[in-house]
Write a structure and sequence with these properties.
By secondary structure, this protein is of the alpha+beta class. The protein has 17 helices and 36 strands. Helix 7 (355-370) crosses helix 9 and helix 9 packs antiparallel against helix 11. The model has no long low-confidence stretch (mean pLDDT 95).
């Protein structure tokens, strides 16, 4: 019996089924994503979406969808579904769905009269290949299966339009065909585990609409090319495997390969196994380089989110070698003590002050997990020294330690922290100067570096840096703390102090090395709990603030305005949970346990088995942004493990 439960009576209800998305990835940069109804609602959806290095290295949709039709006695029942103008859906295959299960892989079961027909999809690990297993479970008459592929051959960020430049020709391969619609793309091989007839009926299906893109204010109409259809008989009890791949394969291997890949997948039979399963999907291994995809479907590698994610994604599963490999990948782009904002681009931008300090935090969690401080110092002392020296003496974007020991950064038109939404070319939240979490992380980084140096007997480093923590702690309290407010300012710029109640101060309350005493940490956690905490994360601004925006909706500009003015972010919860448990010990466990277990509801909402990028600050806290975000999944895993550790 599957752990993930869906209301069978509502599967035919599009309001129910279109809002629930499916995502699978394969560590090679490819993914499958659609809705449980099979209707694509995003331009990012597709049955084979993979990177094309020959073009730009970005992800491209090759096979958008595949319509299945069951034929008996000349009657055709099309199980596909596409949206067209005016909320018109054609065909209406969703009305035949009778069950949807998710264990190792998703399985959809259709009933058409006396026919029971199922499909299961799996993305082959480390290959650009998707396998779909079709099984005719019940049938009283001779049955024919017809499959119609919808081709896109375009970047995930664009939409295709009917044009005369597309190469609509195909070539036959064993049990199928191959096509390449545009130069620079690989051939898409569509093959079957048994002999099949292909009927060429080339046509463009125009103005297919993507509901999510329409709601987000983007272009949402696309033309998809259908070269024709495949047709074959299928007997009761028979399974046929369809393969879409960038390389030709032996059709005789498809059934065995599907079973082998299926057996590799762990069961998703608990809340935690779902999260760990989701965590595995963010890893990408390419050309011996290991990295983390920040989120699906549109994000790539973001160093800040990588360092925040790593403890939850790798350490909690004791994947220590993978942890170091990913850190090593990030260090290749370290420059002047800074990590780039995003990896993978030709001209890397380094406008961030906090990522380098999250690097220290990630290593700190590694040290606590392995108790191998000496090894960490030996391997990473060069980078540790580079970052600390660069910040002390000054680096890009006016990032430099001030005379009082605190860390400041200034840029008129660029955000230097994670609160990096923009309006009219300027950051919506101006945090120029000294952001609170940056300086808490700065203090923590120096203290942790001294801990590592001491373990390795690096006395010269100890001597050079040992006086800084006391100086920074005193300055931190003088600048950020106010007894009248009983919480921390969000940022300080000269004489100006921003007393907006934001979640960044909770990081200071959770760190192992913090300038705050126990009572001050308790005060911070108290105000965060009462004004920022939601069942889905911490709001980015208190609802009592006149600038608060509780719903992330509308146009691109309207959504951008809300992201850091009230939207709730789950990744911040792990700092709330850690800080809360450090203060309240076992007495705080029931509260935080209930909070984290509340995410169990999310396993069958939004994107199945994972956690989206953020949520509305106002109830009912609907999921927003990317459908699966690495640091959110990592935060819930780490919070869950923190609770277990405290209970033990």
């Amino acid at each position: 019996m599957s752990y993930l439960k869906f209301d069978k009576s509502r599967l035919v209800n599009l309001e129910y089924s279109l809002s629930r998305e499916v995502l699978r990835s394969n560590r090679a940069g490819s993914y499958i994503s659609t809705t449980i109804s099979g209707c694509n609602t995003r331009k990012y959806h597709g049955l084979l979406v993979c990177p094309v290095d020959e073009l730009d290295g970005d992800k491209h949709v090759l096979l958008s969808s595949l319509d299945e039709t069951i034929i008996q006695h000349g009657a055709e029942f099309n199980l596909g579904i596409h949206k067209y103008e005016g909320d018109y859906f054609e065909p209406k295959g969703h009305k035949y769905i009778r069950d949807y299960e998710v264990d190792r892989v998703p399985k959809t079961t259709f009933r058409v009269g006396g026919v029971v027909f199922s499909k299961e999809r799996i993305l082959v690990q480390n290959e650009q290949q998707v396998l779909t297993r079709y099984t005719l479970e019940e049938a009283n008459s001779p049955t024919t299966l017809r499959l119609k592929p919808f081709m896109a051959f375009r970047s995930v960020h664009n939409l295709s339009k009917a044009n005369m430049y597309a190469n609509t020709k195909y070539q036959t391969v064993e049990n199928g065909i191959k096509m390449k619609m545009y130069e620079g793309y690989p051939d898409l091989h569509m093959q079957f585990s048994k002999s099949v007839e292909f009927i060429s009926v080339p046509d463009w299906y125009k103005d297919i609409e993507y509901l999510k893109e329409q709601n987000r204010g983007y272009d949402y109409k696309e033309d998809l090319f259908v070269p024709g259809y495949f047709e074959m008989p299928i007997k009761k009890g028979e399974s046929i495997v369809f393969s879409a791949s960038t390389t030709e394969s032996n059709p005789n291997s498809f059934k065995t390969k599907f079973t082998r890949e299926l057996n590799k997948r762990p069961s998703r039979d608990t809340f935690m196994s779902n999260l760990i399963n989701a965590a595995q999907q963010f890893f990408i291994i390419k050309d011996d380089t290991k990295d983390i995809i920040a989120g699906f479907p549109w994000y790539g590698s973001i160093p800040r989110q990588t360092f925040v994610s790593l403890p939850g994604l790798a350490l909690e599963q004791e994947e220590y070698e993978l942890f170091e490999d990913i850190v090593d990948t990030q260090l290749k782009n370290l420059k002047n003590g800074l990590f780039p904002l995003v990896n993978g681009k030709q001209n890397l931008a380094y406008n961030n002050v906090d990522t380098s300090l999250w690097f220290f935090w990630a290593l700190q969690q590694y040290a606590k997990e392995t108790n191998n401080q000496k090894h960490i110092w030996t391997k990473y002392k060069k980078e540790i020294k580079q970052i600390l020296d660069s910040f002390r003496s000054g680096t890009d974007y006016n990032i430099k330690m001030a005379e009082n020991g605190l860390l400041a950064g200034y840029s008129d038109n660029l955000a230097l922290t994670w609160m990096d939404s923009y309006l009219d070319g300027k950051p919506i939240v101006n945090r120029n100067g000294m952001p609170v979490e940056v300086n808490a992380l700065w203090y923590n980084a120096i203290c942790f570096a001294l801990e590592l140096a001491k373990s390795a007997g690096a006395k010269s480093f100890e001597k050079e840096w040992k006086e800084y923590p006391a100086k920074i702690a005193e300055s931190f309290m003088n600048e950020f703390w106010c007894d009248e407010h009983s919480y921390l300012a969000d940022s300080v710029n000269g004489d100006y102090k921003d007393w907006s109640i934001r979640p960044n101060m909770v990081i200071a309350a959770a760190l192992d090395y913090t300038p705050l005493n126990k009572e001050q940490r308790k005060e911070v956690l108290g105000i965060v709990k009462h004004q920022l905490l939601t069942p889905r994360g911490l709001r980015t601004l208190s609802p009592r603030n006149a600038e608060y925006e509780g719903s992330c909706a509308g146009s691109v500009i309207e959504r951008e305005k809300t992201l850091h003015q009230g939207t709730a972010w789950p990744w911040l919860l792990m700092f709330f949970v850690e800080g809360y448990l450090k203060i309240h010990k076992r007495g705080g466990m029931p509260f935080v346990k209930k909070l984290i277990e509340g995410f169990e509801e999310e396993m069958t909402e939004h994107c199945i088995g994972t956690i989206p990028e953020n949520y509305n600050g106002n109830p009912p806290h609907y999921g927003k942004g990317a459908i699966s975000q690495a640091w959110n999944v990592a935060a819930i895993i780490r919070s869950y493990k923190l609770i277990i550790n405290f209970s033990e």
